[in-house]
Structures are given as structure tokens and as C-alpha cells.
Specification:
Elements (H helix, E strand, L loop, with lengths): L12 H20 L4 H21 L16 H28 L4 H19 L3 H19 L6 H32 L4 H8 L6 H17 L9 H7 L2 H25 L6 H20 L6 H22 L2 H25 L3 E2 L2 E2 L9 H4 L1 H15 L5 H15 L3 H27 L11 H16 L5 H12 L3
Antiparallel strand pairs: 1-2
Helix pairs in contact: 1-2, 1-4, 2-3, 2-4, 3-4, 3-10, 3-13, 3-19, 4-5, 4-10, 5-6, 5-10, 6-8, 6-9, 8-10, 8-11, 9-10, 9-12, 10-12, 10-13, 11-12, 11-17, 12-13, 12-16, 12-17, 13-15, 13-16, 13-18, 13-19, 15-17, 15-18, 16-17
Length: 478
């Protein structure tokens, strides 16, 4: 290798470490078999932690590398940190669950590492080809881990549904990318923007953008491409659902934001599409979750609604809007991980339960868990002074400043409606008579719940660091 090329690898060092590490873990697993499960799990956690450190230490002033298809700007750094945190927490929550459910396999941790690698490539991609490669690396690993509990019919069904619908969405995204390339003759986001200039977009380009955004909407489970979410969330093993709901959502939002901000800055039509998708997602998330009795299905509809609020910030099309998106995603990851740490602690003996009514009287059997879970529910509902209130405030404020006050008002009304099912959970926790008593929480669940709950509850005391980092991330795209 030419020594002059070595510095250009520095921005991609976290991805290189994950890729080489995953190959090493495959080798360890192939040699040791199932005896390697514990070792591979520990090394996979170490790999993701090392990649997180490398993202923090990597230079952000380096030029785009790999022919301009990969960049590590402030936006990529911010989103990668969130994705790696989500992957680390979900993987840590998995180990005890897999052991109790008798499907502990060394392949699982390797697939999580490979999926995380795909997410990192998606977040840093600056052309359509690199974006698609990262997307498929992430998705193929997710299809497998959704169905990794082969003895559970629901898990197998979830993996199959996710695979079939995911393949459809990938085809739509690829078709949209080919139309954009046909119109502009370019695949790089900056080159596409330059080719479009400020002229009137053609019909072919509009169709290309629609297909691209349809593929993105599937990956973030936004309406009308949300249909896979409730079944996959309910059917997949719970820690894997946590991985889908945190790290995978971060990568999907990052992909959505970067493409529309860098490739189509002069095309305003995409904002109309995003406004429609945002309203539909907020509405469905607010109403469809009301009748749910399974808490994982409720979290699925909740995630659809929250992706609608995220898209409100994106619809603004301004640095302020992207800043709101970045803050919202960070707070959403914390709330989601905290909620799933509690869901994984809904265990009676060696049996995991998922019905919302099983939380009845939790305040008397486990007051600490009940308090933190109630605060997370209040935060998801957007009640001040918890972190979820500020998340919604930033995106609504950006929408109003961008001339989208009706969208912000619709979001506010739907947020009030959606608060019903979160408050219902709090009512069950504090006012209903206990039905069962849960087994003690694992160390991993306690740790994740403490950190996520503390961030959610105390965010209002010192919001500046997250706001500064989100502002830098947004400015790097404009």
C-alpha cells in the first residue's frame, strides 16, 4: 500500500476495525463452535466500544475518502455515536435473555457487529452506491437476527415478514436511485445537487425522489411503509427489538436527512412528501397504539409516531430543523433503551411476559423500576420538564420558523392524543392491584435503565452539550 494513502483511511478507521473484528470473530466461532459464544459476545462488545472511541478520536477535517463516497463530518460523527451506543446497549441486554431462552449462539453477536458496520457505512455514505451497500449490509444481518430464535414461531415469522417487505423497499430505493442517476448522470450527492442546479425538476426526477423516499420511509417505519413494524417488534426476541428500535432507527434517519439535504437542496418537492408522511405517521402512531395490549406492539406504534415527529423537523429543510432532528433522535434512543430495559425485566421466574396488564401494581413490588418507567412514559408523551418535551419543542419550533405552523399544530394535537396510552401504563403501574412479581433485574438492565432514565429525567438541568453537538452536526450538512 502506498504510504500516502494511509491518512485517507483515518476517517474510516472505526468501520475498518468493525470489519476486521467481525472476520476475526467468525474465525473464533468456526474453530471453537458453540463454546465460543461467551468469548465472542464479550469481544463484540469490545469492538463496538472501540469503534465508538475511534469515532470520537477521528479527524473531522479530513477530505472525503474512497473516491469521495465516504465522509466523516460532524453529522456522521454525531449519528454514529448514537448508533454505536444503541448497538452496545442492545447487545449487552441480549446475553441473559438468550441464555434463558436457550438460543445463545456465537453468530448473533457477529451479526450485530456486521449490522452496526452497515449502519456506520450508511451514515457516512456520500453517494448512492455506497449508501446502498451500507443499507444492504445492515438489512441482511437484521433479517437473520430477527429470526434467530428458530424454535419460536413468532421469531421465524417476524424474520420472514421483515425480509420480504425489506426486499421490496430495497427494490424501490434502487429504482429511485437509478432514475436520479438517469436524470443527473451522477451518483455522488454533491454532484447530483450540482447537476440539478436551481432549475425546475423533471417528472422523472420527481418519481426518482418519491421512490427514494419510499425506501427511506420503510427503514424508519414511517407511514405508509410501516406495516412490518408491529409484527416484527412483537415477534423478534426482545433485545433484538431494542436494537431495531434504537440503532437501526438512527441509521435510517441519518440516511434520510443526508440525502435530502445534500443531494436535493434546490428541490422543494421532497418537503411536501415529508410533510404528508410526517402527518400520517403521527396520526397512526397516536391512534393505533390506543387499543394495544402487548407492550412491544405498543412500542412499535409509538416508534411510528415518533418518526413522524422527527420528520416534522426534517420537513423544515433548515439547519435549525436538522438540529431538532438530531436532538430528537438522541433523546429517543435514550427513552427507547430505558423502556426496553424495563420490558426485558418483565420476567416471572424463567418466563418473560409482554402484556401491559402484567405491569399492574409494579409500584408496590419494584418501586425504583416503576418510577423510572413512569418517567420514561411521561417523557415519551412529551410532558415537561422531561427530555421528551424538549425533543418535540425543538422540531415544532423549527417547523414554525420555516413557515410550517399548521404542521406543528397538527403534531401538537396528535401528541396530546397519543399521551393517552402512555398515561394508561402509568395508571396501571401505580393504581392497579399487583398480579405478579417480577424477578430481580439483571446487571445490564439496571445499568441501561439507570443511565437512560437519568438522562431522560435530568436532561433539562444541562441541555447545552447535546444542543451544541447537534448544531455542529446540522451545520456540516449546509
Amino acid at each position: 500500500m502506498d504510504a500516502s494513502a494511509l491518512p485517507l483511511l483515518a476517517p474510516a478507521l472505526p468501520e475498518i476495525v468493525l470489519a476486521i473484528g467481525a472476520l476475526g470473530l467468525v474465525l473464533i466461532g468456526a474453530i471453537m463452535g458453540d463454546r465460543a459464544t461467551g468469548l465472542v459476545n464479550g469481544l463484540a462488545l469490545g469492538l463496538i466500544a472501540l469503534a465508538t472511541v475511534l469515532v470520537l478520536a477521528a479527524p473531522t477535517d479530513a477530505p472525503a475518502t474512497f473516491g469521495g463516497s465516504f465522509k466523516l463530518d460532524a453529522f456522521a460523527r454525531f449519528m454514529k455515536m448514537l448508533a454505536f451506543i444503541g448497538a452496545f446497549a442492545a447487545l449487552a441486554l441480549s446475553f441473559d435473555y438468550m441464555r434463558r431462552e436457550n438460543f445463545a449462539r456465537f453468530e448473533y453477536a457477529i451479526l450485530v457487529v456486521l449490522s452496526t458496520l452497515g449502519m456506520a457505512l450508511m451514515i457516512s455514505a456520500s453517494d448512492l452506491i455506497a449508501l446502498y451497500l451500507g443499507l444492504e449490509l445492515q438489512s441482511l444481518a437484521l433479517y437473520v437476527i430477527a429470526a434467530i430464535h428458530r424454535d419460536d414461531r413468532r421469531s421465524t415469522e417476524a424474520g420472514l415478514k421483515y425480509f420480504v417487505l425489506g426486499a421490496l423497499s430495497s427494490g424501490m430505493l434502487l429504482y429511485g436511485a437509478s432514475l436520479v442517476y438517469g436524470v443527473t448522470g451522477a451518483v455522488g450527492f454533491a454532484d447530483i445537487a450540482a447537476a440539478l442546479g436551481g432549475g425546475q425538476p423533471s417528472i422523472a426526477l420527481i418519481f426518482g425522489i418519491v421512490f427514494l423516499l419510499s425506501g427511506f420511509a420503510f427503514k424508519v417505519s414511517a407511514v405508509p411503509f410501516h406495516m412490518w413494524t408491529p409484527d416484527v417488534y412483537e415477534g423478534a426476541p426482545t433485545p433484538i427489538t431494542a436494537f431495531f428500535a434504537s440503532a437501526a432507527k438512527v441509521a435510517g434517519v441519518a440516511m434520510f436527512v443526508r440525502v435530502v439535504a445534500e443531494a436535493f437542496p434546490s428541490v422543494t418537492e421532497w418537503r411536501q412528501i415529508v410533510v404528508f408522511v410526517a402527518i400520517a405517521s403521527m396520526a397512526l402512531g397516536s391512534f393505533a397504539a390506543i387499543g394495544q395490549r402487548n407492550i412491544k406492539r405498543l412500542m412499535a406504534y409509538s416508534s411510528i409516531g415518533h418518526m413522524g415527529y422527527v420528520l416534522v423537523g426534517l420537513a423544515a429543510g433548515t439547519p435549525e430543523g436538522v438540529r431538532g432532528v438530531a436532538i430528537y433522535v438522541a433523546i429517543y434512543v435514550a427513552m427507547t433503551l430505558g423502556a426496553f430495559a424495563c420490558i426485558l425485566s418483565m420476567r416471572v421466574g424463567d418466563r418473560y411476559v409482554e402484556e401491559i396488564d402484567d405491569l399492574a401494581g409494579l409500584s408496590r413490588t419494584n418501586p425504583a423500576m416503576a418510577f423510572v418507567l413512569a418517567m420514561i412514559m411521561f417523557s415519551l408523551a412529551g410532558i415537561p420538564p422531561l427530555a421528551g418535551f424538549f425533543a418535540k419543542f425543538y422540531v415544532f419550533y423549527a417547523a414554525v420558523n420555516a413557515g410550517l405552523a399548521p404542521l406543528a399544530v397538527i403534531g401538537l394535537v396528535l401528541s396530546v392524543i397519543g399521551a393517552f396510552y402512555y398515561l394508561r401504563i402509568v395508571k396501571i403501574i401505580y393504581l392497579d392491584e399487583p398480579k405478579v412479581e417480577f424477578a430481580p433485574m439483571t446487571f445490564a438492565a439496571k445499568t441501561v435503565l439507570t443511565i437512560a432514565g437519568g438522562f431522560t429525567i435530568l436532561y433539562f438541568l444541562y441541555p447545552a452539550p447535546l444542543g451544541v453537538a447537534a448544531s455542529a452536526a446540522a451545520q456540516s450538512l449546509f
